[in-house]
Amino acid sequence: MRFNNKICLVTGAASGIGKATALSFANEGAKVVVSDINEEAGNLVVDEIKNKGQEAIFVQCNIGKREDIANLINTTIHIFERIDYAVNCAGIAGKVSLPVHEYPEEDWLNQIQINLIGTWYCVKFQLEQMMKQGGGNIVCVSSAAGLVGQPENSPYAASKHGVNGLVKSAAIEYATKNIRINAICPTAIETPMIMHGRRNLAENPIALEQAKNHQRMKRMGQPQEVADVVLWLCSDQSSFITGHCMAVDGGAFA
Fold first, then answer.
1. d(CA 25, CA 4)
2. What is the DSSP letter of 245?
3. Contact 128, 179 (CB under 8 A)
4. Deepest in the core among 86, 137, 141, 235, taking most CB within 10 A?
5. Global confidence as pTM
6. How far is CA 202 from the centre of its chain?
7. Active site (catalytic) residues
8. Which fold has domain 7-191+222-248?
9. How many Cα neighbours within 13 Å face the side chain of 87?
10. CA–CA gap between residue 61 and residue 116 (Å, rounded)
11. Could you give the CA distance from residue 189 to residue 224 in angstroms, rounded to a whole number?
12. Cα gap 10→250, rounded to integer Å
């Protein structure tokens, strides 16, 4: 019960890593704000948390819209009065695999708007609240694409490199303010975004094997394995860690 009666805000919490993170916080006693653009799926996560006897609310939010983030933070504070932990999982993947000069401008800009600018909105408003309350902890879900280049996936890689730069810069700025901020950089995790997204691994056995073989463990990671790292970074067990972009990669970068 590392997070008993603490307030945790999770964006992108309706599925995948975000859902596993929200449920894990609730399992360890936290009161959880479940946020996602998908209202139906988000409310199902809230119901699952409540069925376990824990407290949760759902707030619909498109992180690419500043007013949505402001509403998310304001609603959280109105109900729970503070934010102890903020986990920014929300993001999107590209729809196509194309080289830089052929990539559709609209899709390129949309990934930057959601993944980078949207994450900045989240961090900005979360930091403002945490400064008021005297501290807090933020974890941003970045990607292995934020650590190395990804051919034919340039906007996603650029956005995640940007998230890592944001995290490192903010960590330095708030290191003496009782606020820690870190990022995690997963590789191939078995989530709806990767299984049914750009490479459609669920229906492409060749691409699925390629993804597995890239990990030294020769398997896909599971959302719970990533959520466990998020909770550790939020806990006092990682109290001397800030500004770190941690690979969660099955040994891929070893």
1. 9
2. E
3. no
4. 141
5. 0.94
6. 22
7. 156
8. Rossmann fold (3.40.50)
9. 34
10. 16
11. 10
12. 24
